[in-house]
Design brief:
The chain is of the alpha/beta class. It has 13 helices and 12 strands. The longest helix is centred in the C-terminal third of the chain and has 24 residues.
Length: about 400
């Protein structure tokens, strides 16, 4: 039997970008010791009090079908958090709870785009973005950025494609680059969306991990609240990656239809997961800062190491749990360098090419191992790059 083109064409006929990661996992399965600096998985696990609350909720019986839009308590808690952080009036009617941020991204594009509509996204991009757009039936159209401009998207580059598009997907703080979009960049994006009637889908799952500047949600810009769908998640802010709890914030009319979509697809998120998420959010910004602190600290460690050499370049690391490193001085592609580093030193990183052509010649390093192991791995990476550059 023949499968649908929607399923078989998710990757556009090419790699899905995870080849080096999968190779590293194969080596680990064979008993080889590999330092993984690949995916955004905290080296700490979900805090015990959150798990205890989750357990108590399950034991109290919140294991049946939960309300499809999300529990009222969690929707109100998310709404209050968003309003406090952005200043935009937000109620539970503006919030739908989803099974993680990835499900929210998919649902948001189903809300914004009909089959065959053009959906814009920024290169470099998180590896799942193009497949998400294809899966929603949209036609992905990439907007290129430049390394020499710190990968900040330019309004004129978006404008070149916006008149024929239906939506634009952005991500700040950005995965993979670690860049935080400036106020000017976001205003330029908003201007294009307003002028050409685009939905803006704003992936803000790293909003608690800002090391320089500030996080500005574009939903807070004039005229943008009614055309912006914000994706959030517990995964990065509270080290709850496996709990799969996220949300979409947007106009209440859009949320109403998204709830109908969830009724026909995911049918909600387990109640005990939602209760634990509400408990975690209730711990406030102090707890979120504790979760973010290791990445802030490792960013400083990395800055010191990289300052002592001149082969590996650093894209401004303003937010998120990643470093985007320029290895073009080695005369290797990011993919070739990543495979070479894995074979030579058992250190796994993600090639820049996994995140689009604009990141070619770069690698992404996740700051997700304890400090001494991270420091040793990064120093080894730099020495390896120096040796390859001199060869």
């Amino acid at each position: 039997m023949q499968l649908s083109q929607r399923i078989t064409g998710l990757t556009g006929g090419g790699s899905d970008g995870w080849d080096v990661f999968l190779k590293a996992r194969e080596m680990i399965a064979q008993g080889i010791d590999v330092t993984e600096l690949t995916i955004g998985e905290h080296d700490i696990r979900t805090a015990a009090p959150i798990l205890q609350d989750m357990h108590a909720s399950a034991m109290d019986g919140h294991t049946g079908y939960a309300a499809v839009p999300g529990t009222q308590d969690l929707r109100e808690t998310v709404a209050a958090r968003v309003q406090a952080r952005t200043g935009v009036p937000t109620t539970a009617a503006n919030v739908m709870i989803t099974p993680g941020g990835q499900a929210a991204l998919f649902a948001a594009h189903l809300a914004a785009c009909d089959t065959g509509d053009t959906a814009l996204y920024i290169d470099p991009y998180y590896a799942t973005y193009p497949g998400t757009l294809r899966g929603a039936g949209a036609l992905p159209q990439v907007i290129e950025t430049r390394a020499e401009e710190a990968f900040q998207p330019r309004a004129d580059a978006i404008k070149a494609h916006s008149k024929s598009a239906r939506s634009l997907l952005i991500n700040t703080p950005n995965n993979p680059t670690g860049v935080v979009y400036s106020d000017a960049t976001l205003q330029g994006i908003a201007d294009v969306c307003l002028a050409d009637d685009l939905w803006l889908i704003s992936d803000e799952v790293y909003d608690t991990q800002v090391w320089e500047g500030r996080h500005l949600s574009p939903r807070a810009l004039p005229g943008m609240a009614e055309r912006t769908l914000v994706v959030g998640s517990m995964s990065k802010s509270h080290a709850m990656t496996g709990s799969r709890c996220g949300w979409i914030v947007g106009p209440s009319q859009a949320i109403d239809h998204l709830i109908t979509l969830a009724t026909h697809t995911t049918y909600g998120v387990p109640g005990f997961i939602q209760d634990a998420s509400r408990f975690a959010l209730d711990q406030g910004t102090h707890f979120e800062n504790e979760i973010a602190e290791p990445f802030r600290r490792r960013r400083e460690i990395a800055a010191g190491i990289l300052a002592r050499q001149n082969t590996v370049g650093l894209v401004p690391a303003q937010g998120a749990m990643y470093l985007m490193l320029d290895v073009r001085a080695t005369h290797m592609t990011g993919e070739a360098f990543a495979y070479d580093l894995l074979e030579a030193h058992r250190i796994a990183v993600m090639p820049g090419e996994s995140f689009g052509s604009c990141a070619a010649g770069h690698i992404r390093v996740a700051m997700t191992v304890e400090d001494s192991a991270f420091s040793f791995a990064l120093q080894t990476l730099c020495r390896h790059a120096e040796a390859r550059a001199a060869a």
